[in-house]
Amino acid sequence: MRAALLILVVLAASVVLSLVLHHDNGYVLLSYGHWSLETSLVVFVAGILLLYSAWHIAWHLLAGTAALPGRFGAWRDARRQRRARRALNRGLIQMNEGHWRDAEKTLTQGAERAETPLVNYLAAARAAQLQRADDRRDLYLRKAYECTIEGRTAVLITQAELQIDHQQYEQALATLTNLQERGSSNAQVLTLLMRCYVALRDWNQLRRLLPRLRQRHLLPEQRLDELAAEAYVELLESAVRRRDAPGLRSLWRELPRALQRRPELVRGYARSLHALDQDAEAAVFIEQQLKRELDDELVRLYGELHTEDDSSRRLTQAEGWIRRYGDQPALLLAAARLCMRGEIWGKARQYLEGSIHNGPVVEAYQELGRLLRRLGENDASHEAFEAGLGLAAAEKKEP
């Protein structure tokens, strides 16, 4: 196109020049050694223009010919990229349709031609995992890691996700630790760490992680509270297994005030104090909790505590709760046990019969059977034990 335009310009210039010099063509003489050339000015100028045009066209033809290999390479690369993009698209479709083996093959073949093979290898790793081919999954993850520097964090996060999905929690934790050592503690890393700690029942690490999850609002507050409650209940039980009463108290003081009001933690702490033979402290703790609201499990535990020279005071406390909350079965059972500890047999029997009347439980029948046997009423005692066994059998049959 440019060559044709140049020729037209040269011809137009020749015509203009011939018109200008129509009356006087001029004269040009060129001489070199024994050679000489005579012509008119019009012919000479036209020749110069034609020579320049021929040189210009020849130069561009040569330059174009020299550039052909590069242009062919660029065309070939563009063609490869188009094929790679189509392969990636086809592979992702195959994955979503459940054709994991075909998807793996398509994605890995496309990765060899792709400009950025990271996406291909990560998707192929997921396809291999869905076939439970962990060795191939790890191979693709390694290739993804080696083919990029900027995307290595994404590769390691994907690796941890896939390991967790296959319940390879120890390996996932090692991968996430590697990420943290690299200075990566983004939201996804923290969430995956939480999943690992819960699965591995590493409650101490979960306890340390929870403030970071809460600060960055990575989970709903309700879910965070549930995780914290689960972790601290387990830690309380761990302190009991270690017979570590000071550690138990330290854990309770560490709890945020909102968590100290959660029923499962309140009950867990009271049970833990009792298990560590800290019954006097447990009694005071339960009394403080029941000032706010009635809790049958705490009431039941209160009746089981053994404190020196304190049964009378605690019986008075239990009877005060009965007046406040009414004839609740758990309260009546706790009061009966305290009466039996103080050998107040008549009142104990009255409370036990009232507890069974208002809501029979196996424990109440058992306590009544023991009390009646102590009073010498063996037939009545036998009937109470049988009633308790019948109730236990009925409860066992319930779904």
Structure, described:
- The chain has 399 residues and is mainly α.
- Helix content is 77%, strand content 3%.
- It is built from 19 helices and 2 strands.
- A two-stranded antiparallel ribbon has the order 1-2.
- α9 runs antiparallel to α10 (221-241), α12 (263-275) packs antiparallel against α13 and α18 (362-374) packs antiparallel against α19 (378-397).
- The model has no long low-confidence stretch (mean pLDDT 84).
Strand and helix layout:
Elements (H helix, E strand, L loop, with lengths): L1 H19 L7 E5 L2 E5 L1 H56 L3 H12 L6 H13 L3 H13 L5 H14 L3 H13 L5 H14 L2 H13 L5 H21 L3 H10 L8 H13 L3 H12 L5 H9 L6 H15 L3 H13 L3 H14 L3 H13 L3 H20 L2
Antiparallel strand pairs: 1-2
Helix pairs in contact: 1-2, 2-3, 2-4, 3-4, 4-5, 5-6, 6-7, 6-8, 7-8, 8-9, 9-10, 10-11, 10-12, 12-13, 14-16, 15-16, 16-17, 17-18, 18-19
User: Between the first and last Cα atoms, what is the distance in angstroms?
Assistant: 89 Å
**Proportion of residues in extended strands:** under 5%
Number of strands: 2
Low-confidence stretches: none
Biggest sheet layout: 2 strands, antiparallel
C-alpha Rg, in Å?
A: 45 Å
Please state the average pLDDT score.
84
Strand order of the largest sheet: 1-2
Explain briefly what this protein structure is.
This protein is mainly α. The protein contains 19 helices and two strands. It has helices at residues 2-20, 41-96, 100-111, 118-130, 134-146, 152-165, 169-181, 187-200, 203-215, 221-241, 245-254, 263-275, 279-290, 296-304, 311-325, 329-341, 345-358, 362-374, 378-397; strands at residues 28-32, 35-39.
